[in-house]
């Protein structure tokens, strides 16, 4: 599969994951936007940039930068709110706030580090789309939240959440 086809498959997987959970999703018209989807949550609009993750050892790795031709690699700060990350190796969709990602390549661990470290490690399971409630997604924009709450409940079980 070529680059364009891979990107389209990723965008479709992320779009489908939101729609399956009852969210309203808007598609921007035309090209050249720094985001691929807009998700309407509790009266707010969240800009989602879709990214393809590749398995690298015990991690999923994805590009967390944009290329503005003529200006080089740029971070997504202020351009998007969330990365919607699809990994074919896990068939999972992960939501990573732009503020929580590195500015070049980001990693989500699928296996525990060999040294047992947990502090500062981004585990893929913590960013799974089902860990995010509608309220937590809105906090990404309003309060700069960078991860789901530790006691996060899957969206389907959250009272009043889309799909719940």
Can you describe this structure?
- The chain has a single domain (3-144), classed as Trna Endonuclease, Chain: A, domain 1 (3-Layer(aba) Sandwich).
- The protein has two helices and nine strands; from the N terminus they run αβββββββββα.
- The protein has helices at 3-20, 134-142, and strands spanning 24-26, 37-41, 44-56, 59-63, 65-68, 72-75, 82-87, 92-97, 105-109.
- The longest helix has 18 residues, at 3-20.
Q: Whole-Å distance between the termini?
A: 36 Å
CATH class: Alpha Beta
CATH topology: Trna Endonuclease, Chain: A, domain 1
Q: What is the averaged pLDDT score?
A: 83
Please give the largest β-sheet. Answer: 7 strands, mixed
**How helical, in percent, are the residues?**
10-25%
Q: Point out poorly predicted stretches.
A: 151-164
Spatial extent as radius of gyration = 15 Å
Domain count: the total is 1
Topology:
Elements: H1 3-20, E1 24-26, E2 37-41, E3 44-56, E4 59-63, E5 65-68, E6 72-75, E7 82-87, E8 92-97, E9 105-109, H2 134-142
Parallel strand pairs: 3-7
Antiparallel strand pairs: 1-2, 2-3, 3-4, 4-9, 5-6, 7-8
Main features:
164 residues, alpha+beta, Trna Endonuclease, Chain: A, domain 1, seven-stranded mixed sheet, two-stranded antiparallel sheet, 2 helices, 16% helix, disordered C terminus
């Amino acid at each position: 599969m070529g680059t364009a086809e891979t990107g389209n498959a990723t965008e479709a997987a992320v779009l489908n994951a939101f729609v399956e959970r009852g969210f309203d999703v808007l598609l921007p018209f035309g090209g050249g936007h720094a985001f691929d989807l807009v998700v309407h949550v509790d009266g707010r609009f969240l800009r989602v940039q879709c990214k393809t993750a590749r398995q690298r050892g015990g991690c999923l790795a994805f590009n967390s930068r944009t290329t503005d031709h003529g200006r080089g690699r740029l971070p997504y700060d202020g351009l998007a709110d969330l990365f919607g990350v699809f990994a074919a190796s896990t068939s999972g969709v992960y939501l990573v706030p732009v503020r929580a990602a590195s500015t070049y390549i980001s990693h989500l661990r699928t296996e525990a580090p060999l040294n047992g470290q947990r502090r500062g490690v981004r585990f893929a399971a913590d960013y799974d789309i089902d860990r995010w409630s509608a309220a937590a997604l809105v906090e990404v924009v309003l309060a700069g939240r960078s991860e789901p709450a530790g006691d996060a409940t899957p969206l389907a079980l959250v009272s009043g959440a889309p799909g719940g």
